[in-house]
Specification:
Family: Belongs to the krueppel C2H2-type zinc-finger protein family.
GO molecular function: DNA-binding transcription factor activity, RNA polymerase II-specific; RNA polymerase II cis-regulatory region sequence-specific DNA binding; zinc ion binding
Strand order of the largest sheet: 1-2
Protein name: C2H2-type domain-containing protein
Keywords: DNA-binding, Metal-binding, Repeat, Zinc, Zinc-finger
Number of strands: 8
InterPro entries: Znf_C2H2_sf, Znf_C2H2_type
Length: 126
């Protein structure tokens, strides 16, 4: 893993963040406890009110993190930070095979398939 790896999946119980949702889900099992705070819209439960409040944005559409460069807004600060790369031109994810750079880790991973010959799952073969 590199220090520039994009970590969009943040644990709401502690300060850890993860590059893949599956790693976050595995990590969440280390936080046992009752989930006493329930969403009134869909009955999903959370262990803290702050996590519930962040989750509620999926229902309300609230996007409290506006971009100062354009008219876009985001529901989470990390999404705004990633978006800002479109304005700054920052491309922190480097292909070690050809030195091409990418805004997002997922784009680099997709690109790496061109070097390995791996087929994308979206390409259906008959």
């Amino acid at each position: 893993r590199t220090h520039t790896e994009e970590k969009l999946f943040n644990c709401k119980e502690c300060d850890k963040s993860f590059s893949c949702n599956i790693y976050l889900k595995k990590h969440m099992k280390t936080h046992p406890g009752e989930k006493l705070f329930t969403c009134k819209e869909c009955d999903k439960s959370f262990s803290t009110t702050s996590i519930l409040n962040i989750y509620m944005r999926t229902h309300t559409g609230e996007k409290p993190f506006p971009c100062k460069e354009c008219d876009k807004s985001f529901c989470r600060n990390i999404y705004l930070k990633v978006h800002m790369r479109t304005h700054t031109g920052e491309r922190p994810f480097l292909c070690k095979e050809c030195d091409k750079r990418f805004f997002r880790k997922a784009s680099l991973q997709k690109h790496m398939r061109t070097h390995s010959g791996e087929k994308s799952f979206s390409n259906k073969q008959i």
